[in-house]
## 1
Amino acid sequence: MKRLLVALTTLILSVSVAHAVYVVYLKNGKRVVAREKYQVKGKLAIITLKNGSVVSVPLDQVNVEKTEKINSLGLGDAELLALGEEGPPPPTPTPTPAMTTIGKLRGELAKPTGEAAKPTPTPGITLSDRPFKDKGVDRAFQEGLERYHLYLYRTSQGTRPEYFYVEVQVNEKEVPKALEAICMTYHLLVQSAPDRAPERVELRLLNEAGREAGLFRIGPEQAAELAGGKITPDEFFLKYVLF
């Protein structure tokens, strides 16, 4: 069965959506970052690059449908991800020594001890033994987290079958990155694959000791606020944290 591809973009740390650009996707898989939409002259696509240089490519080599669809999201120089129903999961990165002391990647997070072992006052939203129904969506969130260099996480079905649950272990500096990674991935799923996007994303942040550091039930509108730059990660945390 052919792999189902859905246009999904996510920002990496070195990319800023503040700069207006237009990305031209070619049929050979390459992309050209331009200042604006290309111009058609005969059988050529005339492209003005970000540095002002002008290049041309045969028009029949431009993936017009993909180019227009991705640029319609208005996210600038973003990197394309494949959201598929098939294919191997992303490779597990080799943890740094600091990560090794926290816990194993993906499969197990650090086990809480002492005070951290006590139950938190937020029952209900927790890891389930049932995986989320759409493996492609699960993989998209995994790749979104790993593009922000966040590797200590677990995913499952949320408190409802249509809810996606993700648990991420972070240090203090990684909290904004985790919020951005989840909200950006969720927002782009809603924009490009609304029929497959979860109804809500339930996010639990754990600190390095394994204690709860933040609990969220994020809807599409909330994700759009952070993904669109309307609020900062710190403002998002204070506005939407459940405890």
## 2
Amino acid sequence: MTDIHHYITELLKGNVLPGEPPFSLDSNFRAVDREDYLSYLPALCRFIETEKDLFKRSIARLVLERIIPDKPDLAIANCLLKGLEDPDRITRDLLLSHIEPLLLPDGTNIEPIKQCVRKGDFLERTSALKALRAAPGIEGELFLLEVLRRTDNFWDIETIAVILGDIGSVFSLPVLMARLENETMETDELIYQALEKIASRLEMPSELREQLGNPDFWKVNWQGTKESFMGFMAMVTMISGNSDNPEAEDQLGEIFREEMHVDIAPFRTYRELRLCSNDEDMFGAMVGIEESLQSRILLEVALSNAGISESRESQFEGIYFNMLNDYLFTRLRRKIRFADDDF
């Protein structure tokens, strides 16, 4: 058998020896003794970047995948991920499986993995979702949550739930909770398992775990009057470009009413409420909401300019508010198409 050092040395000279590179592989299809070949990494990356011959470049990438360390440096990591631009799907899928167990450094460009999620077929997309485990910091989690908020594919939901169970933070909780009530019990069970793993990893007290795992905790309840809800929906329909489309407004109003648990008694539907309300009341409610929002923004700007920071209590309230919003809008995305759905 050809010595691997000789094989790589010849490859870097532009000579591809016959047969597979003679590695002994581990369960992740990487060289068992890959530490012995680390000195070749910079030269391999330079070869990949400059070599014009597609076949030789592919072989060099194959060798790189086999010997890359668990924690590659930035240059090596970006060189590896650039291989995801290969037009061959099988090559990309194999590379994604090699990326999954790695720990990529800060600054790694993970856009090639994201593109595989966006444009890949089922197998490639699934492999790319799993490869996001390797992303630095919370980059992988954030993108997985973007997918989870939008996808209608229960395979996506199950795959992401398993991954978030391993790497998710507290910010995964509202999105996971919002994706419950699926058609299959298996999907919901995987979500609950992910929630429990996150809570355990974060060492949450049992009382808090029980609270966060209760769907009622996340429900947004409208605190204003039905008239103020009309004003709110008038702003929503105006922003969404549906102010001249009563039918679309009624559909939106009904969806928001259900998700925000708005009491519109004695009316049964948003349409009935709208038809029985006068324009003056609706306009007054809309102005009130707008003024409240403007006052809040002006207050935040004034505090910031004065160098006054929020108290810890206010910060926690802000985090809680943002998490409730995330829960609400994730649920809304299941019924309404948003402009950024194709992200």
